[in-house]
Amino acid sequence: MSSLPTADDVLSPTDEIWPLPKVAQLLNVPVTRVHQLLRQQQLIAVERDGIVGVPALFFDEHGIAKHVTGLISVLADGGYSATEILRFMYTDDGSLPGRPIDALHGHLAREVMRRAQAMAF
């Protein structure tokens, strides 16, 4: 079995990550499906304190937040590494205001996607 792809943990220590079994339970899928989502770059995981997990803000009450996989895809297709994608998503941007990951959960999600498309090409 190959190891799972993980990004460098560039998140703040206060940004929660959820272990893969919790992600599987939330999505109501086997943990192997979560592994597949990571390999297909639909989600990004980090390793923290020996635990591989996915940032909690990638999810909402319905599962994977609406624009997360699209944002990851746009940036990955533009040549950004998983670590660079996380850095973009979790770095404060005063013009939004706030972080892109937080904006994805609100009315600025389309603006974040527009900026990602411009960065990627």
Automatic annotation (TrEMBL):
Recorded superkingdom: Bacteria
InterPro entries hit by this protein: Rv2175c_C, Rv2175c_wHTH
GO molecular function: DNA binding
Domain DNA-binding protein Rv2175c wHTH, residue spans: 3-59
Annotated Rv2175c C-terminal domain residues: 66-120
Keywords (A to Z) from UniProt: DNA-binding
Protein name as it appears in the record: DNA-binding protein
